[in-house]
Amino acid sequence: MAADVGDVEFVVRVIAQSAVENEIYFGDLDSVVGDGDFGYSLARGFEIVLEQWDTLDRSDAGTFLQKVAMIIAGRIGGTSGPLWGTAFLRAATVAKSRDVIDGPAAVEMLSAAIEGIKARGGAEVGEKTLLDALVPVRDDVATLVAQGLRAQAVLDSAAVTARAAAEATTVMQARRGRASYTGERSIGSPDAGAVAVAVLIERIADQWSEREAARAG
Amino acid sequence: MAADVGDVEFVVRVIAQSAVENEIYFGDLDSVVGDGDFGYSLARGFEIVLEQWDTLDRSDAGTFLQKVAMIIAGRIGGTSGPLWGTAFLRAATVAKSRDVIDGPAAVEMLSAAIEGIKARGGAEVGEKTLLDALVPVRDDVATLVAQGLRAQAVLDSAAVTARAAAEATTVMQARRGRASYTGERSIGSPDAGAVAVAVLIERIADQWSEREAARAG
Amino acid sequence: MKKFVNDPKQFVPQMLRGIALANPDTLRYVPEYNLIMRADAPRQDKVSIIQGSGSGHEPAHVMTVGKGMLDGACPGDVFAAPPMDYVYESVKLLASDKGVLLLVNNYTGDKMAFEMAQEMSSADGIKVQTLFINDDVAVEDSTWTVGRRGVAGNFFVMKAVGAAAEAGADLDEVVRIGEKVNSVTRTIGIALTACTPPAKGSPLFDLGADEIEVGVGIHGEPGRRRAKLVSADEIVDEMLDAVVPDLPYTSGDSVALMINGLGGTPISELYLLFGIAHEKLAARGIAVRRSYVGEYCTSLDMAGASLTLVRLDPEIDALLDAPAEIAYRVF
Amino acid sequence: MKKFVNDPKQFVPQMLRGIALANPDTLRYVPEYNLIMRADAPRQDKVSIIQGSGSGHEPAHVMTVGKGMLDGACPGDVFAAPPMDYVYESVKLLASDKGVLLLVNNYTGDKMAFEMAQEMSSADGIKVQTLFINDDVAVEDSTWTVGRRGVAGNFFVMKAVGAAAEAGADLDEVVRIGEKVNSVTRTIGIALTACTPPAKGSPLFDLGADEIEVGVGIHGEPGRRRAKLVSADEIVDEMLDAVVPDLPYTSGDSVALMINGLGGTPISELYLLFGIAHEKLAARGIAVRRSYVGEYCTSLDMAGASLTLVRLDPEIDALLDAPAEIAYRVF
Ligand SMILES: Nc1ncnc2c1ncn2[C@@H]1O[C@H](COP(=O)(O)OP(=O)(O)O)[C@@H](O)[C@H]1O
Ligand SMILES: Nc1ncnc2c1ncn2[C@@H]1O[C@H](COP(=O)(O)OP(=O)(O)O)[C@@H](O)[C@H]1O
Ligand SMILES: [Mg+2]
Ligand SMILES: [Mg+2]
Ligand SMILES: [Mg+2]
Ligand SMILES: [Mg+2]
Fold first, then answer.
1. Could D328 and C235 be called an inter-chain contact, meaning their C-beta atoms sit closer than 8 Å?
2. Residue C13's domain spans which residues?
3. Which tens digits make up the pLDDT trace of D81-101?
4. What Pfam families does this protein's entry cite (chains C, D) (predicted)?
């Protein structure tokens, strides 16, 4: 009952690096109807993850994810710290119960993360939050995994789904988070959190294929 | 020993109206290296002169000028109140000693005003103040009056002299007033007070000729 | 960006260091957790009061720590709720036998960080309660929204609970007082310009030369609607029309009136607004008995102001009257 | 122009009315002369202290009237010295048997208005003396210049003479103290933006997005030179290099350090500057014993700050320490 850290470590690293690289972009997204700190908060937190990278306990995927989750929950400020931290924590709990992190495990981890975000922040789908990207992604991944597709194919599809879902938040009115204070004015621009999810999944799909190519080459 | 108020009243009224009309322009001149309040200060003071116009004692030119001077000295703020007030007060004293306000009287009034400004503010010619317009004007008027020229000719010449003198302040470095704090940066724009003197004298010359035309017509 | 700043990432720590250096006898700075605390805290005979929120609202809350007000303030980065660890560690450092009161301005991020920290410190055996401040009338308050924000009115809650705690009230009593003051406090904010977070370096929104934002909060997010800039008289009318009917404040009431600057508006304009509001309230039969004019809860360098009313009764009046000594001071 | 204002010509009177309404028990407003005075003044057993200057520097000086500081402040319009009549009438209203001290920030206009008023009131038999404040090191001081300006350092002179007068000192003694404090006080100002006078409606000068003005005064006129915007560390170095050698302040000195906001800069940035200056002074062997961070003498909505040092001795320390109650306050 101790899944290898391999793919999990790879995915976390891509997320952490992308969050740091997209600090300005994510912040700009959040300044349309929010307060502009989203990129800054994520970047500062994931910077700590990268700083402590080599010292993180990687005896198994669950433990590793839990360590990452503790940093995120404890050290990222704003709304994102508790939400992302809870998501990682719930995913870690699933990972701990698995011998191997395969497609079905990934689906379960995504579902646990989503439930964690809902529980922590009280949001539902349709309220213009990162859930509006995450939930369609989880559904898509669940279907493709059930169909037995390979990881790369699943990821490529997830990236397309995430992007479309993020863009679909444009017409929604924010009902959660700071953007909700602007009422109807939140309509007309996509949710920063949802776009971030799309960017991160696109990046994971991308890097995954590069890794495959490198391994093949 | 009581000069008729006629021409003096006319000139004061032109000055007062022009000061009010040029509030913004004079203020803009003062904001290049000063603090932008020159037009506002003059306008507020001369507004009071115009408001009280009908009640001002005009039994003779000297008394009339003194009343005007009291308003200016007492109610105009900034540097201009004490300076312009003193100038008018000194001119009033000269007027009081005269039976008629003719060319020579005007020259003496101008000289007294200049001495008053120098005494009150400590400035000399060449320090980039309104003295750098007033003193050349006085000299020019003195010469032309001595040559026996008519008032209109004297005024037209004074207007040209004042304008040239005001423009000549551009190359000077301010040594008095707030503009002096900027040191060498005061070079390159004309002094607000000197330009104001030019504008007022041009206006007097103008209105004088209109009045002559009206009387003739 | 025109700011006095070195590395924007060091903006908050360097500000906090300044606060500590200016108040060496009364305050302590704990850099690990962005914590500014009273040098003599925790005192076991007194409820400890902690407030956290994003930075950028100074003097709130890091400059209102001191005798008679907060025991500690643990801010996050600019406009970002403090990380949960900071709150948790602050609670542990300030734990008192009489309990700890957490003041939270009812924003999702702050709420979650403080809730998580309260859970964890309760598990450690620390007696903790949380009080949410939500005085902003610009936000709709219904079951499907996140509820109203805490804005400049938080000053009155801090002041009242601080005075009560200083006088030895127990945790339940301090909470009762805080809830009571919050319940009679209402605020509306108007912005003339957007603000510029140091790390972003440019204004958070564009506002035309003749436009204002009505119903802004304190985080640089836009308000409820955009309007044309009008005279101070009309702005005060708009503010009073939003605030007065909300509680409502009625003829015969005595109130505290606060005109709070949002950071970029000079105090001359604030006093001008105050005078107008005072007279317009008098015309409605509402008597201003306590006055607060200046900056209490800002949004960085935003030009603008908020208007807060607190309905007074003898108990609240006495608590607001009690002395306090904080870093935000004149002398 | 983005300001809370009705008719710009009513800007100053409406602000003054606000001050009076906020302090009904302690202050009186005499609209005819723009005068804000202590409600209990003049007291015949105490020297009366009056300061006038242009408006736009609030809280200076109309918000520093009160017990332990000024007896009256008679401002002119924005950036314009008060008309002579206002000063003269104010002196008459505040005349005390112990005499009247006029504080003047050494600007040509203020100087002339106060000199004329002093002449006239002396002729009326009132005992009057005038003290000029000139702490600004940015201005050359020589026989052919108008001399240095009074800027934010005037706060310390007001505070010290106010405390001395409150304690019953006679006029000569109050003057001695004022001159002494002025002689050990030095200030330098840096602007990040120009300011906008209400009656003008547009900024007084243009400053590029990456430019600052070094050595600005408090009237919106440009400074001694334009420079590139640099880090807060470098700005503090520039300020200290201008101020420290001027007196000079030397190793072993104890000082009061004031970081004064010019109107548009939030207190977070001021505390950041304070912390940096405190440490850099310590490195020069100069100990900061008293701290003043906030707005004391502004230039409307100008973003920027000034740094003031006062060399302390036990006498000055005690006078700065004495209590005072003014309209500029937190509670
Ligand atoms: N209650 C919530 N539940 C789920 N996601 C939320 C919630 N509130 C905000 N979010 C997400 O968080 C993003 C903003 O994060 P961040 O900028 O860190 O928060 P803050 O509003 O505190 O500044 C939003 O774009 C949205 O996707
Ligand atoms: N000491 C002085 N003597 C004569 N004229 C002066 C003196 N100081 C200033 N001035 C004149 O006054 C003008 C500025 O007036 P004003 O704006 O009212 O003064 P302030 O500098 O107080 O704002 C200058 O342009 C200059 O012509
Ligand atoms: Mg945000
Ligand atoms: Mg001027
Ligand atoms: Mg935020
Ligand atoms: Mg002026």
1. no
2. 8-184+322-326
3. 999 999 999 999 999 999 999
4. Dak1
